[in-house]
Structures are given as C-alpha cells and as structure tokens.
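The material for today's practical consists of a large collection of protein records. Backbone structure tokens are a discrete shorthand for how the chain folds in space. An example says more than a description, so a record of this kind follows:
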Amino acid sequence: MSNIRMLNPKDEADSEVEVSWADQQQINAFSKLNAKIDDFEEQHAKLKQEKEYLDDVAMELELADEDEPVRHKVGDAFVHIPVSEAMERVEKDSAKLGLALEDIESEINSTQEKMTELKKSLYAKFGNAINLERD
C-alpha cells in the first residue's frame, strides 16, 4: 500500500517556495537529528532488554542456595563464584545499565527539543510544502 497522495490544487500553489542555502542546512540538520533519534531508540531498547534480563537474574539469585557456587560469565568464560559475589556483580551491572538508560533518555529528549525548534522554523517558512512528521 502506498503512502503517496496528490496535493490539492491550492496546496500545490504554496509549494513554489524557494529553498535557500540556510533552509537546506536546517533540513539537513533535522534529517541528521531524526537518524540520531532512531539510533538512540534502538540503543535504549537494547539496554532496557538487558536490564530486564539482569533483573530476572537477580531474582533467580535470590532464590539460589547460598552454599552452592553459581556460574558467572566473565568475558567468554564462565567461572564459579559464591552467590553473594554474583549478586554484587549483577547489582553493579544493573546500576551501570540504569545510568546508561538515563543518559540515552536525556539524549533523546535533547535531540527531540532541537527537532521541535527546527520543525517550527521550517513549517513557518514552508507550511504544507514540507513534511517533517514520522510515519
């Protein structure tokens, strides 16, 4: 199914706006920010999934027997460590992921604010002749 549609005759007359060098730079900047948002959202989803996995591991470790060592992945190898040490490592990794998630979220918010400013400027000049909305 195609998203292409014909412009109304009255909208077509508005599309005769000349694009200056500065306007093109703003359009390019918006496009770059849009690509960054996609990358940030992808990273956010991966980090969130990893944090959920670590939370699940932490719950499993709480149920584990304290006397039996558990296997913990270090690099490409698994080593046997006490449950308490495994819990500490999982909590530390979870905290790092939490900070990384906060950083990504702040980057997303900052980028969206910049995009909003560019949208205002571009829509003010071009009106219906430009589409900056995501599908």
